[in-house]
Amino acid sequence: MPIPAAVLPVEGGPSSRRILLASLVGTSVEFYDFYIYATAAALVFPTLFFPAESESARLMLSYASLGLAFLARPLGAALFGHFGDRMGRKSTLVASLMLMGGSTLAIAFLPTYGQVGLLAPFLLCVLRFAQGLGLGGEWGGAALLAVENAPKGWAGRFGSVPQLGAPVGFLAANGLFLLLGLGLDEVAFRSWGWRLPFLASALLVGLGLWVRLKLTETAEFRAALEHEAPASVPLAELFRSHLRGTLAGTFGAVACFALYYIATAFALGHGTTRLGFSRDTFLSMQLFAILFMAAGIALAGWWADRSSTGRVLAFGCGGVIVAGLLMQPLMGGGTIAAVTAWLAIALFAMGFVYGPLGAWLPGLFPPRVRYTGASMAFNVGGVIGGAVTPMAAEAFAQAGGLTPVGLYLAVAGLFSLAGLWLVPRAAAK
Questions:
Q1: What are the pLDDT digits (tens) for 146-181?
Q2: Which residues contact 191 (CB under 8 A, 6 or more apart)?
Q3: For residue 77, pLDDT beyond 60
């Protein structure tokens, strides 16, 4: 993504390249942490932490723990958004990353159910909740770091850079799991190998902190403070004066979460059980398909600056509906080619509903409540779109195969289209 060499968002401050690197590294670490949990929840947590009579029941309990983070995310959005709007973006971003990374690292040292009984799933769920709390404040701050420093006409492209942290984090997480699967036998992997990705997160968090601690406050936030004092209670002001924008942003974010967790967590569990693929084969297919998501994000950011973020999001929502309707014909076919094709189509569409959010959601709110507003909309949308999606998809698949799962996805696309219709005219871009 080319960046004008002359762009310096704040006199004496970091260059645009450093700002974008800080937003990308932070979200890459954040999503790496989140995805290694999602991958482990599909592959190893069901047998190591959740006692149940059937394989499907263990998998659903593991997916339920995955959903705990979504319940914590709105709390994290309110907490970190409050301090981000009152004290600034930089320090809040550092705190959220430390909470996220520390919780992930602690999972590496957890005992299993076979060692300590019910205490094991309890501790796992506590740490998963803490992960979600940190993530609730992380994404909004990273998006604002990029967008509030963007030169005129570059908001879409700058806003898409932190979104690229999603495919980068996914490639790192699933790539490491794939390497472990190739280098370790099943006994070693389930005994201790699965812990290594969680341990590795400490190195990535250290890198993220090193980059972010070198930053100054964002240009737009500093300018806003020169004109008025920060909101005393940003959340109260948000609901009092910007409720329609909050609802629009919340509904608009639903489709990307539903699509992502069906195409990753649910698809991995379904592919390695009902479809009979080996873990390494399916991870390889997902790693290939995630490149289409990265391409979609980059194209969406470029298109948004030449059109509008709302128009790009509407196109992406249409792609989510198409992906839902194609799920049974392609993924249900059960061949490597057909399943890979569906994953690529779904994740390419994901790029067009996820990529523009980095600029679209902050654009719905003024700077004084922007951290809280963007974070709340994004994370409450995550609760609606992603909290129960893997578990609901598994239940639908048991009852009627992939057709109802695909219809569930198509409805999520329609839901987000309704969110675009709610956008206040003054905020539409």
A1: 998 888 899 999 999 999 999 999 899 888 988 998
A2: none
A3: yes
Q: Give the burial string for 63-73 (b: 16+ CB within 10 Å, else e).
A: bbbbbbbbbbb
Q: How far is the CA of 209 from the CAs of 60, 202, 212, in angstroms?
A: 35, 11, 5
- Judged on CB neighbours under 10 Å (0-12, 13-18, 19+), 210 is exposed
Residue 356, helix vs strand vs coil: coil
Confidence (pLDDT) at 393: 93
What average pLDDT does this structure show over 212-216?
80
The Cα–Cα gap between 80 and 86 comes to 10
Helix/strand number for the chain, H first, E second: 22, 0
The chain-wide mean pLDDT, for the chain, equals 88
Which DSSP state fits 14?
-
Give this prediction's pTM. Answer: 0.86
Q: What percent of the chain has pLDDT over 70?
A: 95
Q: Which SS3 state, helix, strand or coil, does residue 51 take? A: coil
Pick the closest to residue 78 from 247, 269, 233, 267 (CA basis): 233
Tokens 């592919």, located at residue: 271
Cβ atoms of 72 and 362 within 8 Å: the answer is: no
More confident position, 383 or 342: 342
Tell me how far CA of residue 146 lies from CA of 135, 234, 363, in angstroms: 17, 21, 12
418, 251 contact by CB (below 8 A): yes
Give pLDDT tens digits for 18-28. 888 888 988 89
CA 239 to chain centre: 24
Two structure tokens written together for 294: 């990265």
If pLDDT is split at 50, 70 and 90, which confidence band does 90 have? Answer: confident
Cβ–Cβ under 8 Å, residues 190 and 44: yes
Distances (CA, A) of 330 to 126, 269, 325, 327: 38, 17, 10, 6
The residue assigned the tokens 């909050």 is: 246
Q: What angle do CA 391, 393, 399 make, to 5 degrees?
A: 105
Interatomic CA distance for residues 374 and 363, integer angstroms: 9
Residue 35 token pair: 């995805």
